[in-house]
Amino acid sequence: MAKPMSFQPASTIRRTNGLAVASLVLGILGITGPAFIIGPVLALVFGYRGRDQIDRSGGLEEGRGLAVAGIVLGWVGVGFALFFLLFFVVAVAAVTVHTSHSTVIEHTIRVGRSVILRP
To answer: Which of 48, 65, 80, 118 lies at 20 to 30 Å from 91 by C-alpha?
Structure first.
């Protein structure tokens, strides 16, 4: 007598979402320096899109943690970029004010008691 055929459910192969991986990699590169400006922004875009794709995949894709880590690193990278931009603007302003103030003092010393300010 022949054995009855048994059907086993096909195993679902879960694959890792590529945007989630790209988000994590760009987030790391954005913080460490090689992709200082564009890396964090792309990490945010890829992270949010990857997370949405994973949520809509119905369990066929994984990597939600990678996407969330990329999003967090992206925001940290944006914060670093804004901090350094603000630092640069303040430094340039301080040097400019110091240079123009020094010019006024030098001009005042040359003229003596009469102070003539020229633009």
So the answer is: 118
